[in-house]
Amino acid sequence: MRLAIGAPQGRSGKTTVTLGLILALRHKGLTVQPFKKGPDFIDPSWLSLVAGRECRNLDLYFLDKEKLAHHFYTSCQEADIAVIEGAMGLYDGLDFEGSDSTAAVAHAVDAPIILVIDATRMTRSAAALVKGFANFEESTRISGVILNKVARPRHEAMLRKSIEGYTGIPVVGSIPKQKNLVIADRHLGLIPAAEMERTFEIMEFLQRAVSDSTDLDMVINIARSSGPLPVMEKEELHTAKKARIGVIRDKVFSFYYPENLEALSLAGAELVYVDSLQQESLPDVDGLYIGGGFPEVFGAQLEQNTGLRISIRKAAAMGMPIYAECGGLMYLARKLHYEGHSYEMCGVLPCDTKMSGQPKGHGYSAMSTIASNYLFPVGTVVRGHEFHHSQICNYNPREIQNIFQVQRGYGLNGKIDGIIHRNTIASYNHIYAGAHPEWAVNFVAKASGQEAAKTTIPS
Question: Whole-model pTM?
Answer without folding.
Answer: 0.90
